[in-house]
Amino acid sequence: MAANAVIDKAKTVPQGTRPAVVDCDVHPVLPSPNALLPYLDEYWGDQLVAALAPSYEPNYHPRGSAIAQRPDVAIGPDGRAATRPEDLVKDVFADGFTDFAILNCLYGVQQIHQPRREQAHTRALNTWIAREWLDLDPRLLASIVVPQGTPEAAAAEIDHWAGDKRFTQVLLLGQSELLYGRQCNWPIWEAAERARLPVAIHIGGVFRQAPTSVGWPATYLEWYVGQQANLEAQLSSIVSEGVLQKFPNTKIVVSEVGFNWLPPYLWKFDKLWKSYRPDLPWVDRLPSELIREHVKFTTAPSDGAELAGNLDKIVERMGSQDMLVYSSDYPHRHHTGPRGIEGGTKNKELLDRIYRHNAWDLYQLSVPTSGEAA
Ligand code: ZN
Questions:
Q1: How far does residue 49's CA lie from ligand 1's centre (Å)?
Q2: What is the mean pLDDT of residues 295-324?
Q3: Which of 271, 256, 266 has the alpha carbon at shortest distance from 318?
Q4: For residue 189, what are the contacts with CB-CB under 8 A and spacing of at least 6?
Q5: How far is it, in rounded angstroms, from Cα 25 to Cα 139?
Q6: Other residues' Cβ atoms within 10 Å of the Cβ of residue 304
Q7: From ligand 1's centre to the CA of 373, what distance in Å?
Q8: Distance, CA 203 to ligand 1 centroid (Å)?
Q9: Per-residue b/e over 168-204, b at no fewer than 16 CB within 10 Å?
Q10: How far apart are the CA of 370 and the centre of ligand 1, in A?
Q11: Distance, CA 18 to ligand 1 centroid (Å)?
């Protein structure tokens, strides 16, 4: 499909095309901090060489852990997957099914707590992605990494890349310095809406403070399990502070946090909103309605939805077939393969929504149907 892939921002699926199958969460890995050198100016480059700017590789999934990489993916020279674009392209598109993949680079520039250095490294990282990954294959797309410690600078980074249609969304991390609903973060939402880009909130953090609300965990396990609570807090903040009323075209993609937890969360959010609504009159609809309208969730990890009939039950409780989008989370290894959720339903229409139509709602990506079986 590579030669014919098109980036189309039409409002309706153009004739002779169908909505593309988009893998919404794929992770390229920076092979070394020095890979950024060609994209840093002399000052920041000298700092990197002098080892004043160390590696910010976040090590979210420790290298030896089962989750770090799938056994079937290509491994680079240093034992890590996804450090070479040709490996990623080969692995992600090997299924002959995926039309586009969105690169969410997790190299931790957001953990640089010196704002000017964070901004310089972020610009270098996005430029590295554009030159060394996106230029390689038209099926590769990417999220704009932003220096989220300074929201105005994050907005400027979005504006800078908005003209490059290969950047199809903005990337934020689940644990921020201040909740994303806070008005000081609104420049990010404003810029994303101006650029008509969804905002992905992926597991990860800026580590300006403890990554759980009650302090520092002792193990990776606690950290990873705790990501779900962080995302609940972010959605509660975004809805309660009125982001979705102020920026009504906002679209959010919650990534690598699962979705099985969503129905009871929505139920509780609605119930308590009815009690507290005089405190926040600007939230004029049920939180669940706002979240159904504005937020989608990636399918990996599926956390049990892949078991027979479970996906149907979860989607029924979510109250919408429009909230899930496909992701493999390459190269991470979860308890099922990339398309494991197919075990959870026999509903072909639902799978078609997850693989194609819901991603269309976010990205308006299509591919020609010529030569495809009906
Ligand atoms: Zn991921």
A1: 30
A2: 97
A3: 266
A4: 180, 199, 243, 246, 247, 250
A5: 14
A6: 14
A7: 32
A8: 7
A9: bbbbbbbbbbbbbbeeebbbbbbbbbebebbbbbbbb
A10: 32
A11: 26
Compute φ and ψ for 205, nearest 5 degrees.
Answer: -165, 165
Euclidean distance between CA atoms 360 and 357, whole angstroms: 5
Residue with tokens 């909740």: 179
256 CA to middle of ligand 1, Å?
Answer: 5
Q: Which two tokens stand for residue 307?
A: 């078991």
How far is ligand 1, taken at its centre, from the CA of residue 141, in Å?
15
- Residues 323 and 353: their CA atoms lie apart, in Å, by 9
Q: How far is the CA of 106 from the centre of ligand 1 (A)?
A: 8
The Å distance, Cα 298 to ligand 1 centre, comes to 9
What type of residue is 39? Y
User: Beta partners for 366?
Assistant: 6, 19
- Tallying the residues shown for the chain, one arrives at 374
pLDDT digits 0-9 by tens, 26-79:
999 999 999 999 999 999 999 998 876 678 988 888 888 888 899 999 999 999
Which pLDDT does position 3 carry in this prediction? 36
pLDDT tens figures, 199-232: 999 999 999 999 998 999 999 999 999 999 999 9
The tokens for 200 are 């992905």
Nearest CA-CA partner of 351 in 305, 293, 290: 305
Predicted TM-score (pTM) of the model is 0.95
pLDDT tier at 6 (50, 70, 90 boundaries)?
A: very low
- Paired with 90 in beta bridges are none
